[in-house]
Amino acid sequence: MTKVSISLNDPIGTINPNIYGHFAEHLGWCIYGGVWVGEHSPIPNTGGIRNDVVAALRKMKPAVIRWPGGCFADDYHWQDGVGPRAQRPRRVNIHWGEVVESNEFGTQEFVRFCRMVGAEPYIVGNVGSGTVRELREWVEYCNFPGDSTLARQRAADGSPEPLNVTYWGVGNENWGCGGSFSPEDYCTEFRRFATFVRGFGKQLYVIACGSPGNDLEWTTRFFRKLRKDYWDFRNLHGYAAHYYCGTAGTATEYTVDQWYELIARGLYMEELVIQQRAAMDAYDPSRKIGLIVDEWGTWHPVEPGTNPAFLFQQNTLRDALVAATTLDIFNRHADKVVMANIAQTINVLQAMILTQGEKMLVTPTGYVYEMYAPHQGGTSLRTVIESDTVTYTAGGKEQQVATVSGSASLKGKVLFLTLTNAHATDAVEVTVDLLGGAQATGGTARILSGEIHTHNTFDAPETLTPCPYAIAASGASFIITLPPASVLAAEIAIG
Length: 495
Ligand code: AHR
What we know:
The chain has two domains: 15-377, TIM Barrel (Alpha-Beta Barrel); 381-494, Immunoglobulin-like (Sandwich). The protein has ten helices and 26 strands. The protein has helices at residues 51-60, 107-117, 132-143, 149-156, 183-195, 216-230, 256-267, 269-281, 317-332, 364-372, and strands spanning 2-14, 21-23, 45-46, 49-50, 64-67, 91-93, 99-101, 120-125, 167-170, 205-212, 238-246, 290-298, 337-343, 353-356, 359-362, 379-386, 389-394, 397-402, 404-411, 414-421, 428-435, 440-449, 467-469, 474-475, 477-482, 486-494. The site of alpha-L-arabinofuranose has 10 residues, from loops.
């Protein structure tokens, strides 16, 4: 029997909308072709930014978008991407296929894109190959409200008013493509760079590069060095780990065992969140510094025939299950996770949207973001899930994964409940118990479900979309039946 017990009187914390963040890099067709087509494109656009993509993203409500990388960030010099477009330099994107970067899409275009979709911009500075001065001046260009040369440059570029960018990352993956630093050396660099990241009257949110996966040694060494040498250092607000759960089979071809294997690898995020936060707590017990996961998702072999450096992959119901179970983890740990950014928004890795010329489709993962959006800003409620497990074989060994996962949040008198059934072939009856004297007085739901390989293609873009799903939510205890391989989002009225 599967039981989900929700304690209405046991709040965990507010679900930070930034948990529903995205990541968009100058990589493959994410920016060029995905976001940006240019003002003269026959593809409908507003000032060069695709209208269809903006409309689709607005429904998903990404609270924050991280840019310009990724590895690209530590080889990006922001002055290349401002000023008249025709005069911007052409550079080589050394990380992603050595393609020529036209710099048509730069700071102004990025912030405009964010405002169009309703997201806050999160800019990652260049530590690996950039200078402190470059980063300090980038912040001034974006945010200084007075009459400096850089503020005038911004005005000449079309924004007399400050762009008001709050979120600033100090490098990306500085243990690897961002400069191959040790945690101690990166800590020194971080302090030096962050010292000059000034708010110009605005409170900024400064983010340090964190752990490769769940690397507790990196985190401990970074914070130990920070504390030992300069514990009064206060210009650090977030610390960001990256975790990719990888693949099993390919994006669209996998066995039932591989279906479960990948879902189980996605669920490892919970261990990462608990352990990384505990490692941070040892140095920051009052949690002044927030835990962020600013890159996460599946990583499959690229679509056959596409450039391997472009990381263009299809996205099936399996990716939707990974997205949903991961977002449920972030919701359940709303006291620990302050931001998360799935990789990446469009055409790269676990994308929400795929484009091909003028064609566009929303992936199963994109629909999960749409379905889960009501959790943003809700109060996460303690949710205990007693689930059966299913057995599968991976690496020659029998393993088990929980069938049902989920999370619950409350806004006023509306309980928002999301549930997944990972079972490839069997429906599951879930008993939902509301603890604390609450009574359900009705509810509506939507479901995303199908055969485990189901996905959308450019010829059949609506093969998998969320459908209305009837539930009988009444009283303190009721049953919801989840079809096999499904993601459900329910709004339940509380009397
Ligand atoms: O998202 C693709 C790449 O994965 C990013 O550029 C890098 O930060 C990570 O290794």
